[in-house]
Amino acid sequence: MEHAIDRLQRIAVKLYLDPRSAPAPRACIEIFHRWIQQGAVPGLLIDVADYTHLTGGPRVVLVAHEGNYALDDADGRLGLVYTRKQPLDGPLADRLAAAAGALIAAAGRLERDTADLPGGTASFLGNEIAVVANDRLAAPRSDDADSALGEALAVFGVHLFGDAAVEVRPLADSDRLGFAVATSRPAALADLSSRLG
Amino acid sequence: MSWKAALADRMPGELADEIDTFERQIDLRRQGKIDEKVFAETRLRRGVYGQRYDNGQRNDGTGAKPLPYPSNGLTKGPETVWDAPGMQRIKIPFGGLTADQMDALADLAEEYSDGVCHITTRQDVQLHFVHLDDTPDLMRRLGAVGITTREACGNTVRNVTACPLAGVCRDETFDVTPYAKACMRFLLGHPDAQDFGRKFKVAFSGCREHACGLVSMHDLGLVAVTRTVDGRVERGFETYVGGGLGAVPHQAKLFDAFLPVEELLPLAQAIARVFARLGEKRNRARARIKFLVAQLGLDEFKRLVLEERASLPDDARWDAHVAAAPGESETPLRPPAPLDVSPADGPGRDGFGAWARTNVYEQRQTGYATVTVALPLGDLTSRQMRGLAAVARRYVGDMVRTTVEQNIVLRWVSAADLPDLHGDLVQLGLAEPGAGTIADITACPGTDTCKLGIASSRGLAAELRERLRAAASPTDPAVEGLRIKTSGCFNSCGQHHIADLGFYGVSRTIDGYTVPHFQVVLGGQWTENAASYGLASGAIPSKRIPEVVERITARFVAQRQGTESFQAFTRRIGKRELKAMLEDLVPVPARGDEAAGGRAFYSDWGDPREFTLGDMGVGECAGEVVSLTEFDLAAAEAQIFEAQLELEAGRVDAADDRAYRGMLLAAKGLVKAEFIDVGDDPADIVREFRTRFFDTQVFFDKYAGGKFAMYLFRRHERGPAATAEAVRQLIEEAQLFLEASHACQARLAARPAAGPAPSPAAAMP
Q1: Helix or strand or coil: residue B707?
Q2: What is the predicted pLDDT for the residue at B755?
Q3: Which of A90, B89, B202, B702 has the fewest C-beta atoms under 10 angstroms from its C-beta?
Q4: CA B603, CA B586: separation in Å to the nearest integer?
Q5: In terms of Cα–Cα distance, which of B95, B53, B94 is closest to B181?
Q6: Which of A14, A50, A171 to mutate to test the interface with B (most CBs of B within 10 A)?
Q7: Which chain B residues contact residue A72 at CB under 8 A?
């Protein structure tokens, strides 16, 4: 029987920056504008929203039609988030893979585009991805939904990291249903990307 | 399951029906069964607003590029693409929020917006980058917590605002909250308030002295007053009409020194009926009620309103809405208790002392305080909004209000709880001190998201805020209390007219490139309900505005006489001197002059793209003629400035003449672009300008059309203005005509030969 979580479309995924190697948020304003010029990441890229004056949330947002990319520290850790807005095709596993694929592509691009920034090269921790169900209707905070999404992410984690020993743990301090999916093995973005196809 | 089904039993039936209807209208428009203009007004009346780039085009710094939305030609209004993200304005009457509502706003920001809630200068909340298709569910989820977006935009009664300290203020005459609430309930959806030519704004204040209500700049402003009759104290309102900021600000006129509270709603209804019947409908630029009052004269307007009032049939809701008001009061969550902490665990630690000094207001009620949560640029993240809701539940319950300074206040905080509350706010990143100080800057969205924005008001505000916070602390007391307000254009959503230091975005063309500037507006009066407006004192390159603030405030500190106010100081120094001290900031280095930081001047704050008002190129054929045009525009600017000085000196006739001559010079400059032999005869200039620029619509602004040209035609045809106030308005109009002339010149410069698009690398100065 289909679970409501199977209809989840609004998916947010986050990769964390290594705290020892993170660009200043302001540097990302110019980078994101350049991404629009160059069509550097997937999607119809529209505009850049500067929230560098805030903490504990999006700091710089690259607004796109299908989903937004944002440098974000909502959970106290700086990283890159892709928040899907438009529906994706296929079963949940495909949709998770598509959202993660867009995120990983953008993260890789950010690493490359910050390579020459003095003191601000981005380096992502490739062994952990946070997945949030950004839809309180399809994925309310309930044991049932929690269990359903957790199971789906366990399968997704194995696929993404190529490791049967992935850990799926609920995100602390999250108002939405969400999990961290992690492996203890180091993982490069390129490897993650190739596994997603 | 849908949100409609999930919330069916939690929404008022009427509101649920309205949203269902709106959803059907969306479907009908999608099928092409509703005209796009009709649909645009329909969605605006539900707070669904357009946003920058929703015409499907954006200049990415290398040139104008299409944004190929998958809309298949479908629009949600004229030149407004269906799939382009927009803004959702959410009315928060008198700024009152409950904790549940704050949670809902946080959820919606996360799911439908970009994770940020924005507080506006009229106590609303705005979410940006929202897709039209999401708005019905968004509205349902708001409806489930008692919020409607109905009439948040469009030609309607907008959010009814009120002083955020109403009910706890030490100086108020009485609590205006219940009356603001009554007015909102009565006018929302009222049949007599549905046929306006433009919007209608209402504000309440508990006193005359303070600025919290900003009554003087509203279409209908109400100040609480009492009178004693036969030993009995009666409540009423000092009632003002016809105020407004916008391009040409008007001070509201006193309509009635004492309007009994029982007459509040009938009078509001009568005013609405007169405005709907006689207000301008076709020319949006003259459609606010301030123009009707000016056109009719206050006495005639008042006569018509009172006549209308007398003819209104009794309505039971008049009394029902206000009858309970005197007895309404808020019940604090926690008992009163004095602040009693040692320095080790309270004041002086973790910034508590500095925060308490500026962000805590001692309420009239002993043992209670109101805390201002200072929000940078009016923004807070969804996590912060949700965290603040939790803080509210812990300390004050639902006693939360937004403010016109884009902050949030928590009322009825037991004073003993202040250190703990401060600690909780620190955890949320919301314990910034400096509320109500010069660093607490108000800014409209400007070019960040507004279609009308010319320059980046938020970018400038962020830069000023950062510099002021980093400046030597504590700031000089003379400067600390000043207000800075920035608007992206002349429309004054950032309320620059009532700031000590106000700025609004304009542009200038330098060597064929458009350079962002801000007009400096000095001497507006924030206190006494925004009692007087400042006047433009010259355009300065955007990147030099921080120096403007530094210079003017430094001079104020150095030369202030006793307790002299900033307004008195600027009057004493004089506009000529103030302009002179900024004159060296006006020149813009050549774009290629790296040593002078030239490139930086050609982009705006917080936006590395080369600045543009559209598709900008380097003019070649028009080069010479443009130079002549610029010469006349500069002369026009000087004339208009002189007009201000004449007005200040009480020489009304001379001020009128200078403002008129300024407009003529600007018009002549433009005419020279096509007809170099135009003479100096005003009739010739106006005729040539009308023929070449107005009739052809070359002068027309994309959004304002030809309204700025009408300022020149009207003055030319009617002759001199008779009163100081009329001349003051003429000067404002002349300034706007000049700005429109600059914009027109920029379009002319770009038109004949667009230069090669700069390389991507070159496009990021």
Answers
A1: helix
A2: 38
A3: A90
A4: 16
A5: B94
A6: A50
A7: 115
Residue keyed to tokens 């479907």 = B27
pLDDT of amino acid B628: 63
* pLDDT of amino acid A164: 78
How far apart, in whole angstroms, are the C-alpha atoms of residue A62 and residue A32? 6
DSSP for B657-685 reads: HHHHHHHHHHHHHHHHTT-TT--S-HHHH
With CA atoms as reference, report the closest residue to B135 among B83, B88, B74, B84.
Answer: B88
When scoring A34, A48, A73 by the number of chain B Cβ atoms within 10 A, the one with the most, hence best to mutate, is: A34
Query: Is A65 in contact with A86 (CB distance < 8 Å)?
Result: yes
Chain A contact for B763 (CB, 8 A cutoff): yes
Q: Nearest-5° angle of CA B351, CA B434, CA B346? A: 25
Within chain B, which residue ranges are assigned CATH 3.30.413.10? Answer: 168-327, 439-614
Distances (CA, A) of B473 to B349, B361, B441, B477, B549: 17, 21, 17, 10, 16
Using the Cβ of B133 and the Cβ atoms of chain A, whether some distance falls under 8 Å is answered with: no
Pick B439-614's CATH classification: 3.30.413.10, 3.40.50.880, 3.90.180.10, 1.10.1060.10: 3.30.413.10
Mean pLDDT of B433-441: 95
Closest residue to B608, CB basis, from A33, A53, A54: A33
Structurally, what CATH architecture does the domain formed by B617-765 represent?
A: Up-down Bundle (1.20)
CB within 8 Å of chain A, chain B residues 179-238? none
Share of chain B above pLDDT 90, in %: 69
Which positions 412-451 of B are in contact with A (Cβ < 8 Å)?
Answer: 428-429, 448-449
Tens of pLDDT, residue by residue over A67-82, are 999 999 999 999 999 9
Beta bridge partners of A44: none
Min Cα distance B469 → chain A (Å) is: 12
Indicate the burial class of A141 (C-beta count within 10 angstroms; 0-12, 13-18, 19 or more): middle
The helix (H) or strand (E) run that includes residue B604 is: strand B603-604
Checking if the pLDDT of B624 tops 60, the result is no
CB atoms within 10 A of CB B134: 18
| Cis amide linkage into residue B313, ω under 30° from 0 | no
Mapped to the 3 state alphabet, what secondary structure does B443-473 carry? ECCHHHCCCCCCCCHHHHHHHHHHHHHHCCC
Task: Give the relative orientation of helices A143-161 and A92-113 as an angle to the nearest 10 degrees.
Answer: 60
Looking at domain B168-327, its CATH architecture is: 2-Layer Sandwich (3.30)
CA distance A30 to chain B (A): 6
CA distance B268 to B683: 44
pLDDT at residue B332 in the model: 94
Domain boundaries B352-428, corresponding CATH code: 3.30.70.3340
Considering only CB atoms, which chain B residues are within 8 Å of A56? 381, 383-384, 428-429
- Which architecture does CATH list for B3-143? 2-Layer Sandwich (3.30)
Residues A159, A97 contacting (CB under 8 angstroms): yes
The answer on pLDDT for B346 being more than 90 is: no
Q: Which residue has the tokens 């600000």?
A: B249
Which residue of A47, A53, A176 is in closest CB contact with B58?
A47
Q: How confident is the model at residue B474 (pLDDT cuts 50, 70, 90)?
A: low
Classify each residue of B95-116 as buried b or exposed e, where b means 16 or more C-beta atoms within 10 Å of its C-beta.
bbbbbbbbbbbbbbbbbbbbbb
CB-count exposure of residue B592 (10 Å: 0-12, 13-18, 19+): exposed
Q: Check pLDDT > 90 for residue B702.
A: no
pLDDT for B534 equals: 79
Is a pLDDT exceeding 50 seen at residue B480? yes
Taking the C-alpha atoms of residue B253 and residue B621, their distance in angstroms, rounded to an integer, is 51
| CA neighbor of B536 nearest in space, from B525, B552, B520, B516 | B520
Residues of chain A with pLDDT under 50: none
